[in-house]
Amino acid sequence: MSYRAVIFDLGGVVFPSPFDAFDTHEREAGLPHRFIRTVVANSAETGAWARLERSEVDFAGFCTEFEAECAAAGGAVDATALMRAITTGFAPRPAMVAAIVAIRARGLRVGALTNNWATSERTETGDHTQLGFDTIVESAIEGIRKPDPRIYTLVCERLDVAPAECVFLDDLGVNLKPARAMGMTTVKVVAPEAALDELAGHLGFPLGVA
Is residue 102 domain-shared with residue 159, that is, in the same domain? Predict the structure, then answer.
């Protein structure tokens, strides 16, 4: 297969996972392991987390709603502190940056597809054009979020490629399923180095990762 584009999720792929901040907050607050991600998952598309990522609620409203959801599930979460922790030290993984450089050097297009949220000044992911993305599709700007198939269609349109010409990397299986159904080749990112080895196998060339 000859690919024309690679699409990266940001948090959990190019950048560290927000789940790391979840785990730390749970330990510090004495909450059960996976408590926060369970609240997020159980609230699904109608909950505070999903609404924030679609810009349907402002940050203050999200904090109030999310803390109420956590309280209903039996735990106390400081939403403001949690979200601040997620964005602290938000630096890209060097191996992913090297891979993006290698992919662009081969003439492929590179996109980012991320669920994120907006603050008063910017989106949570900020300006990542310096990483070499040809396009960055953000849920907070578009008002739709993964796993809604429309956002996958949108990133393909902006890259001017067909889904079958793309490889998509994400750390969540639920976000990979729609991409795979559309014809994309998918890579689940658990260990970044292993995921990049798999990606290199699909692309047929090395990715500049030692």
Answer: yes
